[in-house]
Amino acid sequence: MPDLTSRRGLLFGTAAVSAGALLAGCTSNEKDEGNTGSSQQPAADGKPGKAVTIGFAGPQADHGWLNAINEQARARAGKYADVTLDITEGSNDTATQIGQIETLINKKVDVLVILPADGAALTQTGLKAMRAGIPVVNLDRVFSSPQAFRCWVGGDNYGMGLNAGHYIGEKLKDTPDAKVVELAGLDNLELTRQRTKGFDDALKNYPNIKKVARQAADFTVESGQAKMAQLLQAQSAFDALWNHDDDQGVGALRAIDQAGRDDFLMVGGAGALSAFEAIKADDGVLKATVLYPPTMAASAIDLARALGQGKGVSGLAEFEIPSQVTAYSAVVDKSNVDQYMPIGFD
C-alpha cells in the first residue's frame, strides 16, 4: 500500500465515496433532521411509496461485469415493494436493442434505465423516450446528446487509470529505471483511451518509471491470454503490469503462469471475485485491482425510483436528483480486499 501519511497516499491510496454510498440515503429510513422546511422536496427512502415501473435495457451479458450489472439491477429492484422491473434480454446488436427499448416505451414504463451497447447509435432512442415523457437514466456508456437522458450514472475511466498508475508508482518509486507494461482493452472504445490517458498522466509523477510496451486486447479471457503471451515474449524483464480488465486478466494470468514469470507485480481492473481471491491469497503476481463497480446499476435503480416518485436524494440540499453520478475507482489490495469481497462478480 502507499504511505497513507503522505499527501499522495491520502489522495490515491484510499477509497472515496462511491455512487452506491452517495445514494445510500435514497434507501434510508432515517429522519432527515435538517429538513424542516415544508417546501423541501422529499427524499426517496425505503418505505413503500408510489408504484414505479422501471424498464431496464442493457447489452448482452457476455462478460462478467455486464452480467453483474444485470444482477445488481435485479437485486436492487427486488428490495423495493413499490418497484416493478421490466428487464430486456439484452443484445449487442444495436437494432435489436433499439427494438427492445421501443417496446418498453410503448408499454409506457415510468422510467427507463439504459446501458446502451453503443451510446451514439442509441441516442435517438433515448431522445424518443424523453420526448414521450419517460425520464431516462443513462448507465455507463453515454449517449451523444445530454437531451437523451435525465441522469447519467457511470464509472470513472480516467480515474481508474490514474489510480492504477499512482498505486504502481508508489510501489516502484524507489526502483531505478523501472519499467511497466499495459494490457489495455478495446482501442476503438473511448473508455479504453481514457484509462490509458489516466495511467500515463499518473506515471508523469514518477520520472524513474517508463512504460515500455502496450498491447490492446478485447476484454475476453482468450484475448487476454494471447496478448499477454505476446507481451511476455517481447519484454524479457519489467517491474509492473496494469491490466484494464479482470476478465481478460484471467487469460493474462494463465499466460504468466505458463511462462513461469513472477518477477513483476500486476494490477487489474474492474473488481472480479477471482481477482479479489487471488489478491487475498497473495501467492502470485496479482497484488491489486482498481474498481469499476457494477454497483452503479443498483444506484441507477435507486435514482430511477426517485425519479418515478418525484423525489430527491437524502443528504443533498437539491430538490432533484443530480444530473450525473460518477462512481469512484478505489484501489483494492490485500489491506482492504475483505471489505470488497461482497461486490466481487463472477
From TrEMBL:
It is found in: Cell envelope. Residues 54-311 form the Periplasmic binding protein domain. It comes from the Bacteria. Coiled coil: none annotated. Keywords: Signal. InterPro entries: Peripla_BP_I, SBP_2_dom, TAT_signal. Its main location: other. PROSITE patterns: PROKAR_LIPOPROTEIN, TAT. Residues 28-50 are annotated as: Disordered. This is Substrate-binding domain-containing protein. It comes from Streptomyces chilikensis.
